[in-house]
Amino acid sequence: MIKRINVLKGIGRFSALNPTRGTEGDFSSLNVIYASNACGKSTLCDVFRSLDTGNPAYVIGRKRLGADAQPEIVISLEGGQATRFQNAQWHERDHCPPIHVYDDRFVAENVFIGHHISVDQRRNLYGLVIGDQAIASKQAVDTAEQQLSNATTAFNAAHSDLTRLIPTGYTIDSFRNLASVDDVDTKIAEATSEYRTAEQTKTKADAIRARRPLAALPIAEVPETLDKVLSSTLDTASLAAEAKIRDHLAATSQGLPISWVKQGFDAQSSTACPHCGQDMQGLDILDAYRSFFSGELQAQEQLRESTKSAVQGAFGEAAQNQIRQTLTSHKTEQDWWKDAAGFEFALPEIDDIETIIALLQAAHQAIDSALARKQANPGSEAPLTAEESAAVTSWNEKAAALKAYNEALSTINGGLQNRQANAGVIDLSPLQQRLTGLNAAKKRHEQVTVDAYAAYDVATSQKTTAQQEKQRANEALREQSNQLFERYGARINEFLTLFGADFRIVSDGVTFRGGPSGQLAIELRGERISATPESASDPSQVSLANTLSGGDRSALALAFFLAKVEMASDAGRSIVVFDDPYHNQDRSRRQCTIERIHHLAGIANQCFVFSHDLEFARAVERRPGTQAKTFVLNPLIDPATLEAQPFPPLPSQAYLKNYHLLHNYSENPADHLQHLKEVADTLRIILEEYLRLKFPKAWADNDWLGDMIRKIREAQTGTSLSHCQPLVEELAHINTYSQRFHHGGTGEVADEPEARELKTYVDRTLKVIHAGGNI
């Protein structure tokens, strides 16, 4: 048994929940707990469910919003033991007896009381019925299922290992039957060579014919004018003229180049300077111009520049790149013909590209260096140095080798042209079939394939045996499960008869497709009611959506729970929790519900009944022969309290009617839009009724709510009315609001209530009434 809830913090609406001190606050075997709606009953049910299952999610999901502290629970058990919930998990719950909880969550997860029956509900129903009564059969099924799972895993692995070895076009059986071939490797090599050549010739015929011949290498040659440029000289007069011009430019023209003077000299038509206009007649500089610009030096410079340009074209970066690209293209073509066309040829032996480029660069640098010396000293010869001459000689030797390379390319191009001319249509099918068959035959008789077939055969046999064992176990469990479902359905029908229901449960047995699930259906007046989502969504179809009333669904849900607990093997030591079992029930079924609760309480070890209906709670408590302990749950103070105390007396029928009116309006304002004035009038009336019931000696017969508020405000400390003073301001606000809707209440025409504002004051009125439970 659960003795008491010692600690409950940070869960749902509870910052903390305090029980009555001392042993008076301990729970008994039958406990009836009265609490209004939205006061924490469902929170406590989830705490009990979490304790039973050990699943902390039910508590974690109820963590108090806005609270920093984590949920904490300490529950005392019979015999001095305790279990606690800390750090998001339960501790020492092994001694807790099994707990069966009837609430909205049980109904939603296990019972088809909605518009259709879901797959999850069918599966939950199976687990709910089968319980421990078929544990041996279920374990046999689980064992067979695990063995089949293991066998299937082994089979899948063996199948995968084998199929990876099977060539395309073969099945496991056709590949198994291939015969061995003698000297298979030699025959495969011959067939492969023959097929590859034919395939490449066929598939690349157009590409082969489109290939261009190998391009010849560009070979740089030293210009014939180089020796003439480097060996030319100038007479003394030309050199003197040049020196005079340069000195003149340095002194008068801030270092302008001779080319600038040359442009002016060529353009002059008189003895005047073409740039400054000064007459040069008789000046030495004019003679120097004429000697320099019309002499041998200009011819030498022109020849040197043209030679330099020719050297740049033959030896420069562009020529180097062309050699590199040409040699690279030769290698590319060689690879293409081998890989794509199946034709191999050897390129002539030659140094690597970078060596050739290095020789070309060295020769280029040597010639450029000599030309630069000549330009700096045009009057003297500038022969190649020994190092420069060696670089040029090395290149000339390499150029001869390159010419031989180009000559060898002609023979290669001839062979390629012959291949292009002979590229035609070839039938590859026979060659391909032969090669495929040889490779498959070799693969079939390799040891890895032989081993794979052996493992596959063993796994197939084991899987077949496991499937047969599972089928036998399932049949045994199905037979036993069907018997249990028949008993379960029969017991539910007994309860439905007691509840006066005009429908019955029909068992369709158990199915194991997609996991075991229970098949119970509704039969109304001898006709099976469709439980499919499709029927539920079509209002023209007879379905659960339009045949069972809300009271019928509640009765069915309760019948499921009662049958489930009664048939449980642990019923005698279990704890049963009911959360508003009379909720949505027809009044005609109230007494039967109370009888069933007490019957189950006599079977179980302990029972808790939560109810927001005070009349129902009192009826459960006062049933003859009952020794129940009563508690009142009050969450409107902080911390909340769970007090062991007698239930308050029942209100008058008028009060009860008014309370239901306000409660229903709070829940569904849209249903009362035609009666807003009636609801507004009820605010003052119900508060007056409540205060008269609570303090019948405190009022005069003609006291109205305003008089009551005044008397509460003026009450002396320690008197009964003084306990109401924390509510007096809220009572005054509600009274002021309600006066707007009474003719003559303020001397003006009464207002019409606004629905949204009215709901706010209805909720505030109900809150005052609920808070009054502490008075």
Overview of the structural elements:
The two termini are about 30 Å apart. This protein is about 55% helix and about 10% strand. The strands form two sheets. It has an eleven-stranded mixed β-sheet with strand order 6-5-4-1-2-14-13-3-12-11-7, sandwiched between helices. It has a three-stranded antiparallel β-sheet with strand order 8-9-10. The chain has 27 helices and 14 strands.
Topology (elements, then pairings):
Blueprint: E1 2-11, E2 14-19, E3 30-34, H1 41-53, H2 57-60, E4 72-77, E5 82-86, E6 89-91, E7 99-102, H3 104-110, H4 119-130, H5 135-163, H6 172-176, H7 184-203, H8 205-210, H9 225-231, H10 236-252, H11 258-267, H12 284-293, H13 296-315, H14 317-339, H15 353-376, H16 386-422, H17 429-444, H18 447-498, E8 503-511, E9 517-524, E10 527-528, H19 533-537, H20 550-567, E11 575-579, H21 590-603, E12 606-611, H22 614-621, E13 629-634, E14 640-644, H23 653-667, H24 676-694, H25 705-714, H26 728-739, H27 755-771
Parallel strand pairs: 2-14, 3-12, 3-13, 7-11, 11-12
Antiparallel strand pairs: 1-2, 1-4, 4-5, 5-6, 8-9, 9-10, 13-14
